[in-house]
Amino acid sequence: MHSLAAFLLILLAGGAEAFRICAFNTQRLTLAKVVTEQVKDTLVRIVARCDIMVLQEVVDSSNKTISLLLQELKRFDGSRHYSSLYSSRLGRSTYKEKYVYIYRSDKTQVLNSYQYEDEDDLFAREPFVAQFTLPSKILPSLVLVPLHTTPKDVEKELNALYNVFLDVSQRWQSKEVILLGDFNADCTSLPKKRLSQLLLRTEAGFHWVIPDGEDTTVRASTHCTYDRIVLHGEGCQSLLQAAAAFNFPKSFQLTEEEALSISDHYPVEVELNQTARSIQPLSLPTLLLLSLLLSLLPSQLDLVAHGCDVHVAFRT
């Protein structure tokens, strides 16, 4: 009976699936790259894992690349609905990138967005900030601040990212914020001593959920934690379920060469519980299964009772 009771408790405690937020440096994403069958199929499978995906290094000057991805996502799973939100083209030279959010519009909506005003030109690609709804009574909305740093100015840009956080907090009166992206925050770009001195490390309230030392690169010859996710806010941190780099070559059984045709980075992701692990309403199939199991309880109790009688008789 104990095992049956434990199983019933698991069913009762089981809640809605976690809300997954991801960031992925897609390494110079263009239409020519996406029309390649293997690249397109793998990208779709990666993006489809996420409720909100923030793509970096989208260099297509048009929006055809993202339009194609949205079409393929709909074809991949017609029960889901996807939308996109993208920044202007950003960069100090002729080489420019865009930040692109691809999100499940059947689960979340954009409340606000703005391009951070980088008056002192501290960023090569200033953050494109967006506020999304969440399916959570504890945390009904959340702000995302993506950043792709340039390797030669990592420390300067990451310290400036703290100012972006302050700007967001004041503008929208919210401290529930996730900072995420390819920070280049490791190896020669940012040695550990300098990493520990960042404002986002020394100021209270920031939780770096991708551990130092976790490899976010595809090449076997490198082992660097370039890509990061940083949480701020009590509500946000209370809902944290998991965070990790997604090793897509291993999951999709790709060779290193095949994986590098997509990106030299792994996506990073964080999963948030929607209801802080509270008991959830059960679905109809679960209720039917529960009813069946409950109908078996009398026979289970009889067996236990008979077992107790035998045990007592033996002792006397």
Automatic annotation (TrEMBL):
Cystine residue pairs = C187-C224
* Span of domain Endonuclease/exonuclease/phosphatase: 38-265
GO terms, biological process: DNA catabolic process
UniProt signal peptide: 1-18
Q: Where located?
A: Endoplasmic reticulum
Could you list this entry's UniProt keywords, alphabetically sorted: Disulfide bond, Endonuclease, Endoplasmic reticulum, Glycoprotein, Hydrolase, Nuclease, Signal
Q: Which GO terms describe its molecular function?
A: deoxyribonuclease I activity; DNA binding
A cellular-component GO term for this protein:
endoplasmic reticulum
Q: Does the keyword Lipid metabolism apply?
A: no
**What is stated as this protein's family in its record?**
Belongs to the DNase I family.
This protein is called Deoxyribonuclease
Please tell me the species this chain comes from.
Urocitellus parryii (Arctic ground squirrel)
> What is the taxonomic lineage of the source species?
Eukaryota, Metazoa, Chordata, Craniata, Vertebrata
Q: Which gene encodes it?
A: DNASE1L1
